[in-house]
Design a protein that fits this description.
Elements (H helix, E strand, L loop, with lengths): L2 H26 L8 H14 L3 H26 L11 H30 L5
Helix pairs in contact: 1-2, 1-3, 2-3, 2-4, 3-4
Length: 125
């Protein structure tokens, strides 16, 4: 398995676990699910740090974000906290949400890669 697949698989498992357990916890402990956004941001940042190239970080984070914005959202929707207020998801809202999530998470992965190289590897970019 190549580096992109390894990082993407790690990320998919992490974000889906967050979607499942975070959704359950937000219901059980009665807190807004959106408070867990920082956990998601941290996952993507760490995926970027794990990458051996910027291309790997972008590709792996993009794949993970696509799963998170589709499968992960469906999981949290089914459990409860991922539902939108009117309960009806229009195609344009879905598509714009997916594009926004993928864009944001890829940027976080890129930031993780750059900062990881600067701090952990002392490599000048």
């Amino acid at each position: 398995m190549g580096p992109i697949a390894q990082i993407a698989l790690t990320g998919v498992l992490a974000v889906l676990a967050l979607d499942i357990f975070g959704s359950l916890a937000s219901i059980k402990l009665n807190f807004p699910y959106k408070r867990l956004a920082w956990c998601s941001f941290l996952i993507y940042w760490l995926l970027g740090v794990m990458a051996n190239s910027l291309e790997t970080a972008v590709t792996a984070c993009g794949l993970v974000a696509l799963v998170d914005a589709t499968v992960g959202w469906a999981i949290s929707w089914k459990i409860g906290p991922g539902r939108i207020s009117n309960g009806r998801l229009r195609p344009l809202v879905f598509l714009s949400t997916v594009v926004l999530v993928v864009s944001l998470e890829v940027c976080l992965g890129m930031l993780g890669f750059v900062l990881g190289r600067m701090v952990l590897h002392s490599v000048t970019l």
